[in-house]
Task: inverse folding
């Protein structure tokens, strides 16, 4: 794990402030190694898996070194798919929050005329798929002769999808003095040839080697959740398992504060740890956790470093970590000294791919579990209460209450009294008041992630979008997962059946004169 912080990498204050706003406390390995080299002006071949923080690794130094002040495009980022282009664009916008950078995603499936109008106004960074970028170049809309940076993200994927000729044509039309950044998970011969032909001789090859990582004493499980149900899902898991000591990991400092606040409001014995808290505060929190005065500790990766607490029964990844190594370090907090430990990870449908990469890297099986129902919670608490009552009776530590029991017996049926007392205990132990027995994400056969060319500028919010989609397609509330609405487009997770009905009954309709198009977001046609 890295022990360097972002301030040591040489980035300017605008970029550092944005990184701090995003809540990251330390760079991942690829960020730590790549950022200083890029700031020095070298071309870089970065070899690392998806989900290691590559966008920040190239985005931060590019935004650090861009010279603003004219309409020329300064940087082109190529991505293999529309969905990745959109994700990279959104990440760059966050990194550029305190700069004057103008950033635009360009890809097929969106009006090219709108993209042309935006480009004509002047764009600093273009994030696009090879096909659409080449189309715009051939129309003389994009001029890359003066760019300072060119980034090829997931280069091996672009080659696998047959983009090699498009990429070479794009490269030939760019400034030969540009700084080139190539990121790829693998290094096939075509990638090496591309690097040799289009990158400078002193290009630096930085590889983040996957270490052999095993977590044999920890049973690993994941729960697939809707983003909106993440807190309730966690509460249900805790209420069923009743961990005696659990560490819950969040990705950001803000996430820690928000989760701690939500859990405390529901009566959990919990405190948080992250880098913005004073050393004394963190030490006191850790002491209380070690001594058993806290059941739950919510922490970021940095704050949890060095925590050595025996008897941690559960580690819960409320957020997925930045990389696989962080995952291994997290769940290594349990299952120590040959004890059995349990690790749970909450993932939304679109995070499932990253979870599978972690599974492959650790060579361990991460099994799926269903989010507990209210019935599951009742059964778990029933068994707990029964055990406690049995142990109390066998221990005969109740004699002082016998006079009270005899008095109550004269007025009420003792079975009713016992049930009432158990209800009081149950109500105190169950934190989340839910109206639905089940909040399972999936209905039948899993989720599809749909891309819809409607967004906020079309008057869409979750309620109006669902109302529009349901006009011709019937689906249930549980058939819909996460909804991410942007200015000009939307991603929505829907069960396979619902997705099929939505596409069949909605494509071609018009909203405010705009023809509706819906596609499977991860399609690579």
Result:
């Amino acid at each position: 794990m890295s022990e360097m912080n972002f301030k040591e990498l040489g980035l300017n204050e605008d970029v550092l402030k944005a990184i701090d706003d995003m809540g990251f406390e330390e760079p991942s390995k690829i960020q730590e190694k790549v950022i200083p080299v890029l700031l020095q002006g070298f071309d870089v071949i970065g070899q690392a898996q998806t989900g290691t923080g590559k966008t920040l690794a190239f985005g931060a130094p590019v935004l650090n070194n861009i010279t603003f002040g004219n309409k020329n495009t300064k940087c082109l980022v190529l991505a293999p798919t529309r969905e990745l282009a959109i994700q990279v664009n959104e990440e760059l916008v966050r990194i550029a929050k305190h700069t004057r950078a103008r950033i635009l995603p360009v890809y097929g499936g969106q009006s090219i005329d709108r993209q042309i109008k935006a480009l004509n106004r002047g764009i600093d960074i273009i994030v696009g798929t090879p096909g659409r970028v080449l189309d715009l170049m051939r129309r003389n809309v994009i001029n890359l002769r003066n760019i300072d940076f060119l980034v090829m993200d997931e280069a091996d994927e672009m080659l696998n999808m047959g983009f090699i000729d498009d990429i070479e044509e794009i490269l030939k039309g760019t400034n030969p003095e540009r700084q080139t950044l190539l990121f790829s998970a693998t290094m096939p011969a075509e990638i090496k040839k591309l690097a040799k032909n289009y990158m400078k001789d002193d290009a630096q090859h930085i590889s983040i080697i996957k270490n052999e990582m095993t977590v044999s004493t920890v049973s690993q499980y994941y729960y697939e959740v809707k983003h909106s149900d993440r807190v309730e899902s966690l509460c249900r898991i805790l209420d069923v398992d009743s961990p005696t000591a659990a560490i819950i990991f969040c990705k950001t400092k803000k996430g820690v504060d928000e989760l701690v606040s939500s859990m405390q409001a529901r009566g959990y014995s919990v405190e948080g740890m992250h880098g913005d808290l004073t050393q004394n505060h963190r030490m006191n929190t850790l002491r209380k956790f070690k001594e058993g005065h806290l059941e739950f500790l919510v922490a970021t990766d940095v704050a949890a470093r060095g925590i050595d607490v025996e008897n941690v029964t559960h580690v819960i990844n409320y957020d997925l970590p930045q990389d696989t190594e962080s995952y291994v370090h997290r769940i290594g907090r349990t299952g120590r000294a040959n004890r059995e430990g349990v690790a749970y990870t909450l993932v939304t449908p679109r995070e499932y791919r990253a979870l599978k990469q972690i599974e492959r890297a650790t060579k361990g099986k991460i099994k799926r579990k269903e989010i507990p129902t209210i019935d599951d919670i009742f059964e778990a608490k029933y068994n707990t209460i029964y055990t406690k009552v049995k142990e109390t009776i066998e221990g005969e530590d109740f004699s002082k209450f016998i006079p009270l029991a005899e008095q109550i017996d004269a007025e009420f049926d003792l079975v009713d009294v016992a049930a009432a007392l158990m209800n009081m205990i149950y109500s105190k132990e169950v934190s989340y008041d839910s109206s639905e027995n089940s909040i399972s994400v999936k209905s039948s056969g899993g989720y599809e992630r749909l891309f819809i060319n409607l967004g906020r500028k079309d008057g869409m919010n979750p309620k109006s979008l669902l109302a529009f989609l349901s006009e011709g397609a019937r689906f249930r509330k549980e058939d819909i997962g996460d909804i991410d609405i942007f200015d000009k487009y939307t991603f929505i997770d829907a069960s396979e059946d619902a997705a099929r009905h939505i596409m069949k009954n909605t494509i071609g309709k018009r909203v405010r004169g705009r023809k509706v198009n819906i596609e499977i977001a991860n399609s690579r046609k």
